[in-house]
Structures are given as C-alpha cells and as structure tokens.
Amino acid sequence: MSSEKYPLHHACMENKFDTAKELIKENPELLLTRDDDDRLPIHWAVSMSSTDIVHLLLDSFPPKAPEMFLCKDEGGWTPYHICSSIGSVEILKKLEAFDVENGHKVDWDIQTKQGMTCLHLAISKKHDAVVTYLLRNGESVRIPDKTGKLPLHRAAALGNIELARILIKHNSPVNKKDSWNVTPIEQALLAGHIKFALDMVHEFDADYEEIDWKDIHADVKKNFLENV
C-alpha cells in the first residue's frame, strides 16, 4: 500500500498515533477514504489492535458518521468482524459505543461475503471472551456461513466442548448439516476430536446414526463406537 496515496491508512498500519493525529487535523476527509481493498483507516487500526488510534479515529469522525457495523471492505468485513477475529473486547465495546452514541442500533448478525458472522470468527480464533460478549449482545448462533456451517461447526472442528455448551445453551441446533451434509458431531470426528463427539452424544443426544464414516479415520471410528 502506498503511504503517499493512503497516508492515514499507512499510519494506522504502522501504529503511528502522532502521525495519524496530524493527518486528521490537516485533512479530516482522510477518515472516509477507502484504499484498494475498500478499507477505511479504521479497518486497519482495528486489524493492528491499535487501541489508541481506534479511539482517535472514532473520536474524530464528523457528525452523521457511518455505522461501523456497516462499513464493509472488499470481502464484506466490517471493523466488528476484524475485531472479533483479533480478539479485542475493548475495541469491540468502543465500536459499539460509537454506533450507539450516533443513534445506530448495532446489527450483530451482519455477515461477510463468505457468510461469516462475528461469532464464526471469534470461535475460529478461540477468543472466548469475545464469544461471550457477542452472545450477551444477542448475536444469533443459528446463522450459517456460505458453506452451511454454524458457529457450532467451528467449535466442533476445534474440539472445544466448552464453547459448544455455551452455543447450545443459546439454542444452537445440535444436528444441523452443512452444505456437505456434515453435522457438528461429524465435523469433530473428521478432526479426530473423539471426546468432543462423545460429550455431544451423552450431554445433548447428538445424532450419530447417519454419520458418513468414509472420510473418518478407522481408529477414530472404532474408539468412538466402543465408547458411545
């Protein structure tokens, strides 16, 4: 990215607070300039976990500022998605406060072009605190991505039964199939997470009768069926 073409973006990427502050003072319109990836400076500040610069940018936006949860880049990622992926509850709270203070009701279920919600991303990166925050704010556990996977599929792929319990407590379907007809329990077995799969059956009566075993390792299948 050219520092001459996108100076504020570059300052955010380099975590240069004083430079960013001076650039905004000289030309506030830079706050709403999009780069070649269709990103605003705020996208990069969040990406780099530059908390001070995030605060600076949000505090510098003009009246009638855009909703942060609607500011999508080329891939459909908003600052909320990026924040959920990097795992900063502090920045997430700041983004929410900014939108609320500007009279906007945050849509926590907004998706990227790949259909991923903030919850998908937070779970994939094992950011439990972010997951808790998103659920507390009412984000749905029932939204599939473009491959049909629920957040529960993501937890299953990681073998994270604690997150699975939380998702199911918030009414996640247990036996939902993705675009390849894979359920969360099957997703876990494909990744070799036998204990996760057993816990899903014993605690939540997950259905294992229709599992397609052809891609599951023979030892995994044997161990699971001996203990289920």
Helix content: 40-55%
CATH superfamily of the largest domain: Ankyrin repeat-containing domain
Q: Can you tell me the overall shape?
A: elongated
Order of helices and strands: HHHHHHHHHHHHH
SS strand fraction = under 5%
Largest sheet: none
What would the CATH topology of the largest domain be? Serine Threonine Protein Phosphatase 5, Tetratricopeptide repeat
* C-alpha Rg (nearest Å): 21 Å
Question: What's the β-strand tally?
Answer: 0
Number of domains: 2
Question: Class of the largest domain in CATH?
Answer: Mainly Alpha
Structural class: mainly alpha
For the record, give the distance between the C-alpha atoms at the N and C termini, rounded to a whole number. Answer: 54 Å
InterPro entries: Ankyrin_rpt, Ankyrin_rpt-contain_sf
GO molecular function, one term: protein folding chaperone
ANK repeats: 114-146, 147-179
GO cellular component, one term: nucleus
What report would you give on this structure?
It is built from 13 helices and no strands. The protein has 228 residues and is mostly helical. It has 2 domains: 140 residues, Serine Threonine Protein Phosphatase 5, Tetratricopeptide repeat; 81 residues, Alpha Horseshoe (Serine Threonine Protein Phosphatase 5, Tetratricopeptide repeat). The protein is elongated, with a radius of gyration of 21 Å. 41% of the residues are buried. The mean pLDDT is 96.
Summary tags:
mainly alpha, Serine Threonine Protein Phosphatase 5, Tetratricopeptide repeat, repeat, ANK repeat, proteasome regulatory particle binding, Ankyrin_rpt-contain_sf, Ankyrin_rpt
